[in-house]
Structure formats: C-alpha cells, structure tokens
Amino acid sequence: MDIKKVVIVGGGTAGWLAANHLGKELLKREGVSVTLIESPDIPPIGVGEGTVPDIRQTLLNFGISETDFIRECDATFKQSIKFVNWMDKNTYGDGNFYHHLFDVPNSSHAKILTEHWLNQKNTDKHYAHNLSSQHLICEHGLAPKDITTPEYQADLAYAYHLNAGKFAQLLAKNAKEKYQVEHILANVKAVKCDNNGFISNLITDVHGELAFDFYIDCSGFDSILLSKTLNIPFISVADSLLVDSALVVQVPTQPEDNIPPYTIATAHQAGWIWDIALSSRRGVGFVYSSKHITDEKAKLKFDKYLGEKCQDLSYRKISMKVGFREKFWHKNCVALGLAQGFLEPLEATSILLTDFCAKFLTQRFPHNRSQIEYLEQRFNHSMQYAWQRVVDFIKLHYCISDRTDSSFWIENKESHTIPQTLKDRLTLWKDFVPVKDDFFSQFEVFYLENFLFVLYGMGYSTDVIGERKATDSDMAEYFERKEKIDEFLKNKLPKHRDLLEKIKKFGLQNI
C-alpha cells in the first residue's frame, strides 16, 4: 500500500515545523499530499520561546527571510544561556554566573585552552571568557552581528528568542503557500484502527470521517494518537529530573528597557527561573519541584524575583510530566513535539528536539507500508538515544553543582538520581578533559563544546597533570590575539536593541 495522504494532527510550533519539513520533502513525490488538522479550541502551550543555533539553518531551508522572521515573531538574538546562582553563594557569592555560549573554538583548540585554564588555579577569568569573545559581547549587551551583515550570517554564532504563537503563524503561512499543505480547523473526536492495528480514520466534528495513510501526532501532552489510541506507554524520568511544576507569566517591557542577548536561568532553592526578553515583553517562568517547595512559597519567591511592578500580573501554572514515550513511531503513526515527551526547558530542548526529530523523519520517510517496519525500528532506536542524552545533559547542571543549601540540591547529587551513562562520563572526565571522540553519535544532540561550557563553568575538577601541551608563550600569544579580537568586536557590534530596531526599519541584506 502506497503512502499518498499524510496528516498532521495538531498545530502549534511542533505541528507547523513538521508541516514545513514534510511539505518540502513530500512535495517532490508525485501524488502525495500533506494535511494539518488543528483544533480551533485548544490554544498552544507556548512555553518554548528559546532556540539553539540549528534553527537558523532550518529557517533558511524553509526559505523564510530572517528579516520577516524577526519582525513577525518579536524575535531577539540569543547568544548564550547565562546561568546565575547555580553554584554555592558562600563560595562564589550571590549572583555568581557562567555562560553556555554558542560561539565555540574547534575541538582541538578547546582541549588545549581547557587544560591551560585548569592549570591556572588562581585565575579570576570565567572559563567561557578564555574560549570565546562572545562572553565579553554578552556581558556588554551587544548583538552578534550588525545591520550590514547578510541574513543568517554573523560574526558570532547565535539563535533566537521568539513569540511561540507568532512563530507558529509564520510557519503555517510558509507551509501553506510554499508546500501546499492543506489546513483544516476541526476537533478530532475519535480515531479508528484497522484489523492490523494501523490507524485508518479520524472522526472530526466539522468534516466527519477522514482517511489518511500516515499520521503525525502533534497533539501535545494529550497525544491522542500514539498514547490514547495506540497505547504506547510513557517513560518517566522524574527520578532523575526532579522539577515537576512551573509558574509562567508575560511581563510587559518599555522601549528603553535593556534586552539581554541571552537567556537568563537563575537557580533557586527548589529549581530555577527562566527569563527571556523579546522585543516587547519578557517571558518568565518559575520552575520547581513540588516535593521540595509548596505552590504558595513558590509564588512568593516568584513575586520577589519579578518585583513590585509585576504584582498585578496573573500567573499560569503548568504541571510538568517529565519523560518520553517508549516508542515514537508505531505502525503508521509518528509523534513529534509534546506528544513525544517533555523535559524542563533548561537548554531550549522543546523546539530543538521537535526540529531534530522532524528532520530525521523526512530523511527516510516511507513510500509504502512495506518500508515501515525497519524505518520504525531505526527511528525509535535513534530518537530514544537522543532523548536519553538530553536527559543526561540537563541532569549534568544539577548533579555537579556544589549547592547544598536545600534538600532539592542535595537530592540532585544522590547517586540513584544520576543516569549511569552520565556517571560513566563524569568518571572519565575526572582524569581526562572531554574530547570529541567522547561523543560518538550524531544523535547526541549536545556535543563536546556544550559539555565543556557547563562542566568548567561550574568548576568541575579534572586532573590534568602531565596533559598540558601548550607553552606559556603559545598561550600568551593566543590571549594577546584574543584581546585584540575582543576590542575589535566590542567597537564594531551594536547594542542588541539598536540592531533589532534597525532590522525592523531597514531589514537585513538577503544572502
């Protein structure tokens, strides 16, 4: 049986990312159509407003103008995640921080610089400052490029903060106009399967019964196809990632307010707070473990963080069931986005994993049912690995922290909460600086440089006796060059808000 009619159930960022990826690829196949069915009654969750640099290539592949994207999605530039108070305040002071930067040196260079930094026991420089000029640029509130730099190009690597609702609208417009994706507004009331367990029909409230050959489940936490119809179990990772709740709010900003070119992630006694600045508002979320703090105390702490000016704002509570499906592809159904699973948005993993999985799906999308079995196995094996490695990376931030000021931080360091794969890597990295070969799969999602910034930003101890290969003169020459680059970029690059205003007024150059 040939696969000719593909349907995506659910809109939002996940649904419309899938529609663009699949629409672009399947448009090349004769007689194949893509339809997206979206409920007019269910608003998108809209939590994930941070991205990683890969999103630039995705937007470019979709043929979306960066100027249009920035204008229509209230987008701002993101060059880093600034982690505040993730270390002991008594040792490092209140307001201690490190940057997980996006601009990185090559892997061999990173090893030499890391070994040098570890040997400088008394340095007052941040680890990230040694590796990249972007640390300085972030701390000065500068943009990664100027108005003369063409779209999607830059002096420094970057991603975006964005309005998730407006982003979904932009993606929808692109998918419908460029890739002929049909858009149906309707609620799916029931799902039918055939005698072999394949989904055969959707029963909708507006269009009655609709039949398709292949189904993409982007229905969010409900997962009405993969979970409720095909009964694929959920694997909880709550024993490793302890947070389970979030209070979220949108904070209006003034035209003169500073727009940090990075996400701020501030740790507290039972979790952390995200703070993302768009061009006209901030998206702020208080993430916490209900086991370690009550909802009432969480609200009081959130009030204190936001300040008196925000007292009249109302919070929305989100319960977070952290984990993922046992399988992401079963028979003629694949889940993407929140229908796959959910992890706390510490490293902008929501849009990242959706984009990553949708790309992988389109690379080997079945032509007929006979291909499904082996493609299903391949997809599930690869995506399970990816999700597990993301769990490891998020857990890393907690388990190597030296905070012991609450039961939350103490429990996060207990051995039974740390995945064995992460334990094995941390044991290795006690004696050896991480290298590229430690990350042997294309499905790692987070790689060498990501781990370096977190490990040594948080002061992880690696014994590098006998490992140092660079001479003092080599290092002196490197830092002299770097200081010149720092000064050049500091003088060249505009303030973040200034660039955004120029883009809205004049636009960026097309590539």
From TrEMBL:
Binding-site list for L-tryptophan: 347
Alphabetized GO MF terms: monooxygenase activity; nucleotide binding
Lineage top rank: taxon: Bacteria
InterPro entries (alphabetical): FAD/NAD-bd_sf (IPR036188), Flavin-dep_Halogenase_NPB (IPR050816), Flavin_halogenase (IPR006905), Trp_halogen (IPR033856)
Binding-site residues for 7-chloro-L-tryptophan, renumbered to this chain: 78
Listed name of the protein: Flavin-dependent tryptophan halogenase RebH
Residue spans crossing the bilayer: none
Enzyme class, first EC level, given as a word: oxidoreductase
Catalytic residues (positions): 78
Enzyme nomenclature, EC number: 1.14.19.9
Species annotation: Pseudoalteromonas holothuriae
Record keywords, A-Z: FAD, Flavoprotein, Nucleotide-binding, Oxidoreductase
UniProt-annotated binding residues for FAD: 11-14, 188, 338, 351
Pfam family, one: Trp_halogenase
